[in-house]
Amino acid sequence: MCGIIGYVGKASAAPILLEGLRRLEYRGYDSSGLAVLNGGNKIEVRKKSGRLANLKGLIKESPVAGGCGISHTRWATHGEPSDVNAHPHTDQSGKLVLVHNGVVENYQKLRNVLAGEGHVFQSQTDSEVLAHLIGKYYDEGDEEDLQRRLVEAVRVSLSQVAGTYGIVAMHADVPGFLVGARLGSPLVVGLGKGENFLASDVGAIVSHTKDAIYLQDRDLVYLTQDDFSVEKVDGDLSEYEVSTVDFTPEQAEKGEYPHYMLKEIFEQPTSIQNAFRGRLIDDQASALLGGLGLTPRELRDIDRIVLCGCGTASHAAMVGEYMIEHLARIPTEVEIASEFRYRNPPLDKNTLAFVISQSGETIDTLAAMREGQRKGHRVLGIVNSVGSTIARESDGGSYLHSGPEIGVAATKSFTSQVTVLFLLALLLGRMKHLSVEYGRNMLKELRELPAKVEKILLQSEHIRQIALKYIDAPGMLFLGRQFNYATALEGALKMKEISYIFASGHASAELKHGVIALVSEEVPSVFIMPRDSVYEKNVSNLEEVKARKGPTIAITTEGSTELEEIADDVIYIPEVTECLSPILAVIPLQLLSYHFSVARGCDVDKPRNLAKSVTVE
Ligand code: F6R
């Protein structure tokens, strides 16, 4: 939530900042702004509400020049999206500028104190208070080394902040010098030749450098174009390492696709393969998840599993619960991270906890992990973003290797999360009662998945035609059973978040317990009903909807042609073992919501009110 990029170097800062903001826009798009220090030690600020295009227009009218600057794309927390609430924010003197990602929880108290001292605020934001605070301590400082004085001002100010921050600050009297710090909101240092960067995400800087330092909480960094230094906000030494970014700038672009979401849907044959590549052991008919760091004895002793995540990741966790209980017979629970962190659930020593997160930065998931660790538990991560906070702080785990996911709606991360959870279920199952033959069959099924996904993707146009048929639908129901109950929830989430129509997912049998009241001629019901152990039950539920004149769309296994007589529309998926069916069944749902929303004129990559990575509570 909110994207930050700062630059110091020989090049002109504004184009680099604007390009970085374009790559960060998925983190928030309520407003954007930048500040550049020109040669005459004057800070020029340009900011504008709405999409980045508005800021670009403003800069075209009123250009800025200089080789040192900071910028921000905002997801509003305190204060409506407006020009004045856009970042950067300036202090009382007008010489210090700051961009901030996070929430200053005690901002009202700090603001009152500063107002009492004569500070006048322009915006309703919590962030502006931080700018004033840093500016005040800078002005009061007596350190002759101005760089040091700015660092100290940042340090003292942050010690008074309750809440979270990823910040970059710059002062007109300290040219060519940026100070950054993080607590709870990500910040990465990019190391170039004769230039350095600070950004919320490596995606913003990968076209300039592949050398990055993923800062840890309470790290404070300052940089010039040729040098940098990392220490702790409290002055202690900080340990850091320089990592190499694991993807190319091209991977972070949408290429020939009209939207990132469509690109990412079409990447799934590859991303699913990447999730299991090198993790199948044929001679043991099992899976290898070396990153778990558990001995065979420890794995055997696990008698309960907790899977924790938010949104789509929690739906993947639900599929995981069914898979693990089915294949490994280990009781498994799914916990919504925001509930888990405050609920204080009992965990005993043989419980294995996983947090699941594409971004590795979701604040509730991160807090749930830390809460588990605080109680002395080992908490493992299933994460996509390399170097993210969860990846670094978890006690081991598995990467998804999906490559960057930029469309706000999660697509390929869901199928990769389910794939990794399947590997876990298989590994645990093979430690217990699953036969070699069963294990071999599962490996075969996994290997066949990418080609089956390709086959579904070929139906994109057919699915688009179905979407167009229901284009005026005011709402949509998604129904599934067993492994595909979670798929129904995920289908509904995709539909509502990008099309803004009401959509809800249910276990098909729940229809008669209330949901059926929503069925009408205008509201289509999408049944996820592969030919599996509950197929006939789903057919009965579909008939019940039909009897009430509700339009129906069935997603079923190739060959179930009898459904063409009952359902209004049928989408086929290839035959697959029951527990892997969500990976195939979700693809038509992703395409349905995509085509439906595009046809309704929605911005599917940047749906209203949302941001990709939820780093505030
Ligand atoms: C839905 C979606 C969100 C995320 C959720 C968790 O399409 O993208 O529901 O799944 O915010 O995000 P991560 O996986 O980054 O923790």
List the helices and strands and how they pair.
Elements (H helix, E strand, L loop, with lengths): L2 E7 L3 H12 L6 E7 L5 E7 L2 H10 L6 E7 L14 E2 L5 E6 L5 H10 L10 H14 L5 H13 L6 E7 L6 E6 L4 E4 L3 E5 L11 E4 L4 E5 L4 E5 L10 E2 L15 H7 L1 H9 L3 E2 L4 E2 L8 H6 L2 E6 L1 H18 L3 E5 H7 L7 E7 L5 H12 L4 E5 L5 H5 L3 E3 L12 H20 L4 H22 L2 H10 L5 E6 L4 H15 L2 E6 L17 E4 L6 H13 L4 E6 L5 H4 L2 E5 L7 H19 L18
Parallel strand pairs: 17-18, 17-19, 19-20, 20-21, 22-23, 22-24, 24-25, 25-26
Antiparallel strand pairs: 1-4, 1-10, 2-3, 2-4, 5-6, 6-7, 7-8, 8-12, 9-10, 9-11, 11-14, 12-13, 15-16
The site of fructose -6-phosphate (F6R) has 15 residues, from helix 9 and helix 16.
Structure notes:
The N and C termini lie close together (10 Å). The protein has 617 residues and is an alpha/beta fold. It folds into 3 domains: 243 residues, 4-Layer Sandwich (Glutamine Phosphoribosylpyrophosphate, subunit 1, domain 1), CATH 3.60.20.10; 209 residues, Glucose-6-phosphate isomerase like protein, domain 1 (Rossmann fold, 3-Layer(aba) Sandwich), CATH 3.40.50.10490; 147 residues, Glucose-6-phosphate isomerase like protein, domain 1 (Rossmann fold), CATH 3.40.50.10490. Helix 7 runs parallel beside helix 13. It has 19 helices and 26 strands. The longest helix is centred in the C-terminal third of the chain and has 22 residues. 37% of the residues lie in helices and 21% in strands. The radius of gyration is 26 Å and the shape is globular. The structure holds fructose -6-phosphate. The site of fructose -6-phosphate has 15 residues, from helix 9 and helix 16. Fructose -6-phosphate binds next to helix 9 and helix 16.
